[in-house]
Amino acid sequence: MIRPDAPVLLDIRDLQARVEDKAILKGVNLTVRAGEIHAVMGRNGSGKSTLSKVLAGHPAYTVTGGSVSYRGENLLELDPEQRARIGVFLGFQYPVEIPGVSNLEFLRVATNARRAERGQEELDTFAFEDLVHERLKVVQMDPAFLDRSVNEGFSGGEKKRNEILQMALLEPLVAILDETDSGLDIDALRIVAGGVNQLANADNATLLITHYQRLLDAITPDYVHVMAAGRILRTGGKELALELEQRGYDWVDEELAAREVDR
Amino acid sequence: MSSPQAVGDLVSQPYKYGFVTDIETEKIAKGLSEDVVRLISSKKEEPDFLLQFRLRAYRQWLQMREPDWAALGYPPIDYQDIIYYAAPKQQAKKASLDEVDPKLLETFDKLGIPLSEQKRLSNVAVDAVFDSVSIATTYKEKLAEHGVIFCSISEAVKEHPELIERYLGTVVASNDNYFAALNSAVFSDGSFVFIPKGVECPMELSTYFRINSGDTGQFERTLIVAEEGASVSYLEGCTAPMFDTNQLHAAVVELVALDDAAIKYSTVQNWYAGDEHGVGGIYNFVTKRGQCRGDRSKISWTQVETGSAITWKYPSCVLQGADSVGEFYSVALTNNRQQADTGTKMIHVGPRSRSTIVSKGISAGHSANSYRGLVQIGPKAVGARNYSQCDSMLIGDQAAANTYPYIRSQQPQASVEHEASTCRISEDQLFYLQSRGIGFEEAVSMMVSGFCRDVFNQLPMEFAAEADKLLALKLEGSVG
User: Is B164 left (phi over 0), alpha (psi -120 to 50) or beta?
Assistant: First the structure.
């Protein structure tokens, strides 16, 4: 929901970043206020995924210019774990498996790290089990998943639901979901979208990185941004997503070319 | 790694046991000869049978060649450049701990092993060995009330020579291997444990080995005997100062379990491992073997090896008794330039004997970590069963892990199962945990703990937590 006087949670100004020696982000500008849902769409290679990783602090990416402030604080100078603790959440496109580390234990440690940051009491094993069983309902996951190693042997859909479960436990203020819908069948998509909608409220914001319009049928965005060549090319409402669906991305190339000419 | 700064910030914690105690030590000249062997025996006032034991071993050693089949590399050891006897200059072992040189007590205090009456651990009896000489043994009287003998080998030789004569060298023969022969000739001290029939030892027993001198070799000898129906849990801990030369530690441990007896032997080894360039560090060449002589007897080895420049040891079980059980649980961690060639031998002789092997190797830095194991099933071991699981974890991309499992079976009605796996700590896994608010060190620790859980669960409770922390400490700065 758009409220012009809602607090700014994320303010990205002219963000530039590279991976190894390749420049990927070439000046991204984006402002996200509390209560909003933003969709970032674009072709492969447009920089959408890079944006999400840079915001989360992935070590493989180097910021070469611009700034990102989170609730007024410089986000870029914080370690990934600190960013997570203060409420920035990245839902991975390909959540990695971590054999030997129990899912339950991992969720408990992560939850407590966030709680500690917010000045809340840390939960012991029993209290946490109660909490997690309640949150499992958000993603309709079987408690049996808690006893397994993190993401080990999970199907694509189960991994994505595990991501949303983490969101439900960590209660981030800015949730960046990187192609959360990729690899999901209709039912899994419905559950994931349902979870995201349930968790969205007036105080937090969601950034959906997506390729396809169909996720946006289930989660209504307030803003849709089209990314190309490391920049946001155009911003619109949810109709923009429908337009992309119908027209495809070719017009983007034309627009990019036009802009080059203007220079 | 999170960032180059984070790597720098994670200062490799200095080996906190690296200090040297300034104390007067009596040492003999370097070099080994029959005269040196006689000198050692006379300094310890040993009976003739033991002198002969040493001399026989020494002569055997002269005929033997140092083995070179292990996946280890090290410069040749000059056996004449080692001092074979060093002892802190205090006379006889003190009747009361108050008479022990305070500097020695302070040393053990600093190591977290307080010996004085007020501060000692209440449920663990400790034999403190400083430079291969036993300094003090706590709770001796209390244990004696149960008939349990727990003292240094040197003392046992004087007070229970018949037991020493009966059991010493019967599990590991002097000529078993090069280092066992050397040890049998020049061993200085170690622990002796004897649990009489039917007694469940009322306390954990522990020996703490502290090396202090830089140019001496360390040749401890430990002997544990559990008579029929007896049981004991024993823990061995070890640390050494940081010298930039290598020191040889060639120990021998013998365990004997009679009918229905059980011996649990745990080791947390944290010898100085050398610096990050591989300079200095202990050579840990050890022969450890247990004989399940009796029916339904059980011997369990649990080891956490985190130190030493080189670790070369195969704690083994000879399963002679019918229905006897042998177990080996091991975590071997190597970092920087450490090398390890370690594993176990389970020799099944008796029918329905069972063995379990769980080995976890963690290789980081530029280290090399090898598991070498033998499961041997003899013709009489009808119904014998073995289960082996060898897992390797690689940290970073410069470390190496190898597995050399040997299976020899002469009994068609026996079952042998072997599983192996390899995994890595990847940057992606670390980032995943960090992106959930889990700090870098805790993330590495979680992954390593998960990997080692099966083994740590076997350690006595107090030491399981220590082992977790020790591993986390040893791995600092190793990822990325």
Answer: alpha
pTM of this prediction?
Answer: 0.78
Q: Is A33 part of a structural domain of the chain? A: yes
Contact B447 A117 (CB under 8 A): no
Q: Which residues of chain A does B454 touch, with a Cβ-Cβ cutoff of 8 Å?
A: none
Pairing state of beta strands A22-33 and A8-19? antiparallel
Rounded-to-integer distance, Cα A231 and Cα A15, Å: 9
pLDDT tens, residue by residue, B361-403? 999 888 889 999 999 999 999 999 999 999 999 887 888 899 9
Domain contains A163? no
Host domain of residue A206: 8-94+173-262
Question: Does the pLDDT of residue B13 top 50, yes or no?
Answer: no
Q: Quick one: pLDDT band at residue B241, thresholds 50, 70, 90?
A: low
B435/A109 CB distance under 8 A:
no
Q: Is A79 on the interface with B (CB under 8 A)?
A: yes
Q: Which of B426, B435, B453 sits opposite A80 (nearest CB)?
A: B435
Tell which of A90, A103, A109 to mutate to test the B interface (max B CBs under 10 Å): A109
Residue ranges in chain A whose pLDDT is less than 70: 260-263
* pLDDT given at position B5: 30
Torsion of CA A123, A126, A131, A134, to 10 degrees: 180
User: B19-44 in b/e burial notation, b at 16+ Cβ within 10 A?
Assistant: eebebebeebebebeeebbeebbeeb
Q: What is the CATH number of the domain that holds A234?
A: 3.40.50.300
Nearest to B446 among A80, A84, A101 (CB): A101
Assess if residue A123 is contained within a domain: no
**ipTM (interface pTM):** 0.94
Instruction: Please count the structural domains in chain A.
Output: 1
A32 falls within a domain: yes
Eight-class DSSP state of B351: T
Domain definitions of chain B by residue range: 13-426
Looking at B10-69, list the stretches that DSSP marks H as alpha helix, in order from N- to C-terminal side. Answer: 34-43, 48-63
